[in-house]
Structure formats: C-alpha cells, structure tokens
Design goal:
The chain is an alpha/beta fold. It has ten helices and eight strands. It has two domains: 219 residues, Spore Coat Polysaccharide Biosynthesis Protein SpsA, Chain A, CATH 3.90.550.10; 70 residues. The chain has an eight-stranded mixed β-sheet, with helices on both faces.
C-alpha cells in the first residue's frame, strides 16, 4: 500500500477547515489502496485555525500539523510541508476548497500509471475580474518568453508528486521561492488535469492585486535575467540616440548656423533619460535585493509547534 501526504497551507481558515476535512475525507474513503496523512501547515494564522487543527489531530491520527512562528507566506508553508512529508506520494491543495478534492483519485492513478507529477491547470476564469484575468494571462506570456522554463498557463500549486520530485524540489534551497517556476524547472513527466476553480467555501481570499503583482515580479526575476539585459539595451539605445543627435546638431550648425537654445527640449531630455536611468537602477536593485536576502542564509520558515516527532523532520 502506497503512502500519501496531503499538504494543506492554512492562513486564517477557521471557517472552512471543518468543511475541508469532511469533504476530503469522504473522497479518500474511496481510495482504499493508499494510506493517507493530512499535513496542515498553519502559516501564522491570527484566528482559531491552530485550535481547530489541534482538535482534528486529537480526533484523527492521520492529521498532522505544523504551526509556523509567524506568517511566512504560502511558498514557505508549502516548503515546510514538503520537508516534513516522508511518504511515497506528496500532494498540495488549498484549504479553501477551490481545489476540487474529487481530482485526487485521478491524480493518484496518473502517478501509478507512470507519470511523476499530476497537476491541475485552471482553464476557466469566470467570476474573476477582467483586469485580474488579463494580468494573469499577460504574466504567463511574459515569463514564458523571458525565462528558460515553460510554465503552463493557468498552472496551479494543486498537484500530486512522486518522492523523487519532492527530493528534487527540496534540493533547491533558495530563499526567494516561486514554486510554479520550480515545479517546471525540475522537469519530470507531468500529466495536466484541466480544472475549473470553485468558489471559496468560506472566508475571503488572501491574495490582493498588490500581492499578486509582487508574486509575478518574484517569478520573473527568479527565473529570468532578461530585465538586466533590458538595462543594457536601454543604455545602448540612449547612447546611439545621443550620438545621432550630436551628429545632427553639428551638421545643422555647419549648414544654417546656431539656433536659439531650446530649454523645453533640454528639460524633456533630462526627464526622459533621468527616468530611464532610474528604471535601470531599479531593475538592478531588485536583483541585488534578492542576492542580499539569499546570502544572509536566513531560514525560510521557523516552526513554533507541531505534533510530528522530531526524528521525522527532514533537515
């Protein structure tokens, strides 16, 4: 009998956790060929999420939990879960029930048939704002053109993975993590499942437009050096334009003489090229800031409480 761990990142999910546990448990009852473990990762929730997890753990021995010392973000929560998971298969799904548990049996069957990863890909964005949908589609187009990895449009964190895939992901100890890119970068044979997101069973989304923008920026910078090349191209273009303008000025002066100095054009040029310089410095600064965070070697997460034995932790 193969063993399976379901990693469930949680942040202020007190309203939905009981429903999640009941619905997923009902699905798992049909998968009699597997031994399941729930691994909830409490990512610094400020509500009673931890109390509910303790209660579930007392009621069901399959329920394990990790409580982080503060909110480190979903990326850190997923990493914590993967470090603790020691089973043959490892899955990741959200606690809000937008990831349909009904896909779990088919995903496990895909792994049994020879695939290394079974992942969900969102194909319908109904109910989402047009601006957010356009931003999301544009992000996938940009990152796939700029980076060496190919991230499927609508790819989600919802997936099942074999042990070797998890080990490959854990071998990448980077501090600034963009899991969608990491999942694609490690490779392996993947089967995609088209998935339509459900409405949240309860509570509100934790992903604001600002957080999504930062997340997209992390992905582009983490898996592409193209923005740095952009600074070089802008510098070269500005130099060529400056040279051509100087040549034009010399020729014009030789032919028709000197014009009255144009202050508006000078001020405009200062603002344009000053802005370009600041943009290039900003791009370089984003990379330097991530290098700074990496070299400090701070832990990606800190554990406050868990009901897992210490000898089960993968260092």
């Amino acid at each position: 009998m193969k063993t399976v761990t379901l990693i469930v990142p949680c942040y202020n999910e007190k309203d939905v956790l009981p429903m999640f546990y009941r619905e997923v448990s009902a699905v798992l009852e049909k998968c009699t060929d597997y031994a399941f473990t729930f691994l909830f990762v409490n990512d610094g929730s400020r509500d009673t999420t931890l109390l509910i997890l303790r209660s579930l753990a007392e009621m069901d021995t399959r329920v394990k939990y990790i409580s982080l010392s503060r909110n480190f973000g979903k990326e850190s929560a997923m990493l914590a879960g993967m470090k603790y998971a020691r089973t043959d298969y490892v899955g990741i799904l959200d606690a809000d029930l937008q990831h349909s548990p009904e896909l779990i049996p088919d995903m496990l069957a895909a792994l049994d048939s020879g695939f290394d990863i079974a992942a969900a890909r969102r194909v319908d964005r109904s109910g989402e704002s047009k601006i957010k949908s356009a931003f999301s589609r544009g992000f996938y187009k940009v990152i796939n053109k700029l980076s060496d990895v190919d991230i499927a449009e609508g790819a989600q964190d919802y997936r099942m993975m074999k042990r070797k895939v998890v080990e490959a992901i854990l071998s990448m100890p980077e501090y600034n993590r963009f899991s969608k890119g990491i999942f694609s970068w490690v490779g392996f044979k993947t089967k995609w499942f088209e998935h339509v997101n459900r409405e949240r069973a309860a509570g509100t989304t934790k992903w604001s437009f600002r957080k999504l923008s930062h997340y997209a920026l992390d992905g582009i910078i983490g898996f592409s050096t193209a923005p740095l090349k952009f600074s070089l191209y802008v510098g070269v273009l500005a130099s060529v334009c400056g040279f051509l303008y100087a040549l034009y000025t010399i020729i014009k002066t030789l032919i028709i003489g000197t014009d009255v100095p144009g202050y508006p054009s000078i001020i405009s040029a200062i603002f344009i090229f000053g802005g370009l310089i600041l943009v290039c410095l900003g791009v370089i600064g984003e990379y330097i800031s991530r290098i700074y965070l990496e070299v400090k070697k701070r832990p990606v997460f800190i554990i406050d409480e868990t009901n897992i034995q210490t000898d089960e932790i993968k260092e």
